[in-house]
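Input/output pair, single chain:
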Amino acid sequence: MTASELKTRANALMNRLNELGFMKDGQPMVIDQAFELVAAEEGYRNQHVLRTKLDANNPDSEAAAQLDWHSIVACQGWDAESQLTHAMGFIVDQGQMTDFLAYAEKAAADENAFGDTVSAEEISELLSSMGYSLATSDFGKPYWQFECEASVDFADEAAAWEDAWEDAQNRMAQKLGENSAVWAARHPRARFDILRSARLTPYKAGECCSECGRELDLDGWHSLCVDCAGSTENQETDHAARQAADEAYEAYDFGATVVSANGWETCTGWETWTRTVFLENSAPGESSIRVRFTVRVNDGIVTSMAAY
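Output:
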């Protein structure tokens, strides 16, 4: 049922019941009461729950709602625990706990079907095959590297690989268009298998440079070979886009103090710029909050920005 079909059905119901003489408090039925009757017929508590369901079935509304949700989360500075609290509050308020329980039981069964969690050895081997590597800083501490980006120092290699694994998952979630909550809900083995099959390569084997037609190799970037990417025109485009992304980053309100940030990542013709940002945690003794900040640039002008 669409919103238009709901209105048509409610109008028909209202007109028919008024013709038959049904009244409430001596007054004929109005459209709002008809909406409530249709909602009850469909098994919903009220028309607002029904309308929410209709909006959820609209892909455009769903996508817009996800973007608005990420914006609210960033502005309020809600961490994962706060987001869960609000989500559970909504489920209880909407009377959907029974449905949610059924979903949770199925999700648990699906997770158990995957077997054991992923070992540290499997993760490090996968990350290495994807292009991640460990290096040692001037202070004798390990840190990870991937393409043009590098992390902060860590106490040991295990901690460095663990953070690299988080970074790889954040990149993959973004590549798939999933928000962090949806990605984190997956079983660890499921996430591992997705990264192993999809990888993070910005182009496929055999893909050619969009300008000269030469097959791309590991030095390719933005669907361009290394020579074309280094041309004066493309360098100027890169510089203008990066400058716009830098200005957007400086102006953006993260809702908390920025502790540090990694370098920019871009692999879509300089149109999308993303970086990992670490925010101060208001909870004493807790580690900083990690978010991904994305800016979209068109002809040197920022068209959107968001942190999630």
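Residues 157-176 form the longest helix (20 residues). The first strand starts at residue 23 and ends at 24.
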